[in-house]
Amino acid sequence: MTAAAEQPAIDLLMGAKTIAVVGLDSRTDRPAYRVASYLKEHGYRVIPVHRGRFPADEILGERAYASLRDIPGPVDLVDVFVRPAETDEVIDDAIAIGAKCVWLQEGITNDAGIERARAAGLAAIQDRCAKVVHQQQAERRAGENAAG
Hints:
Layout: H1 3-15, E1 18-22, H2 31-41, E2 45-49, E3 58-59, E4 62-63, E5 77-80, H3 87-97, E6 101-104, H4 111-119, E7 123-125, H5 130-147
Parallel strand pairs: 1-2, 1-5, 5-6, 6-7
Antiparallel strand pairs: 3-4
Helix pairs in contact: 3-4
């Protein structure tokens, strides 16, 4: 995937307000929890979406939902922490709710799903960690402002 193809998703990450994290549960040792905690600490509203073995009514102070389609308000970005085989349904749900971006976390790929999301007008990225990208972009922007 080219940097140009990824840039719209990166820009949306940096400008998003509400991020639904699919695969987030209450296990604090899991990558989804660590990334979601980081995003929340950096001002994002993080909405947990989880239907697995560790359901919870609330995670990180937000009501948890079983599906993206159950979330009552708008979602800017969908950050995905599920197995690649499960991403098609999540991508379809992201398209259906009018999300602006689908972000498949590091180690998660679905080329056809990413292309489907882009064809539907969403920014999309795969196999990248939202936390790492956010840190890199924040550092880059801070350097630009300091040099400015």
